[in-house]
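Saturday, quiet lab. Running sequence design on the structure tokens for the scaffold JK sent over.
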């Protein structure tokens, strides 16, 4: 199921949009502010982000800027959903790397059409190369040690710490320690994000 991250501080609208997207068959992660949204983006790596602009604390422009500067999320389609829809506002969002700009109120049809269009375009732009898991050596380019590269190779294949410990003949605690170091060196917070970085190299 395709995961969409919705960042919207107005609770009734957030609930309404969640319902629209859920009924359309999407898995929706909902955040009520920018900081919560960035945490979910790093942890869950959504297929698309829908984000309000005017939010307290961290506004939509700041969220987009951070999404685009994180290697794990920089290619995720990003759609602004906001009442702030004047031409200068739209240009500002597009210049930061937004993929679309939907003014509020948005109809169900317009919302779903924009989501489908952006997801399809992202699929078309994905590389067609299959990752090569034969050798962990290329992963050392990420600035990690040979042993960490071995661990990351198996993390990228969906293996848990217990399985990796058995495969490499290590203790689970040692694998966990290597995994923490990998996250720190790659600047990521989740196994999913680390796997994405590995797949970029191995493809």
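Result came back. Writing it out in full:
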């Amino acid at each position: 199921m395709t995961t969409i991250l919705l960042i919207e501080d107005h609770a009734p609208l957030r609930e309404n949009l969640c319902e629209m997207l859920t009924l359309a068959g999407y898995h929706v992660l909902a955040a009520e502010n920018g900081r919560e949204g960035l945490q979910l983006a790093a942890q869950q790596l959504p297929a698309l982000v829908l984000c309000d602009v005017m939010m307290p604390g961290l506004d939509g422009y700041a969220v987009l800027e951070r999404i685009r500067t994180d290697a794990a999320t920089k290619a995720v389609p990003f759609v602004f959903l906001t009442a702030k829809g004047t031409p200068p506002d739209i240009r500002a969002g597009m210049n930061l790397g937004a993929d679309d700009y939907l003014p509020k109120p948005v109809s169900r049809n317009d919302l779903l059409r924009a989501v489908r269009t952006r997801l399809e375009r992202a699929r078309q732009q994905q590389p067609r190369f299959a990752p090569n898991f034969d050798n962990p050596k290329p992963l050392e380019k990420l600035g990690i040690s040979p042993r960490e590269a071995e661990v990351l190779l198996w993390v990228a294949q969906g293996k848990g710490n217990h399985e990796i410990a058995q495969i490499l003949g290590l203790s689970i605690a040692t694998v966990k320690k290597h995994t923490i170091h990998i996250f720190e060196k790659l600047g990521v917070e989740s196994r999913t994000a680390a796997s994405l970085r590995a797949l970029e190299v191995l493809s």
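Notes for JK: DSSP finds nine helices and five strands in the chain. The chain has a mean pLDDT of 90. Ask whether to fix the surface positions before the next round.
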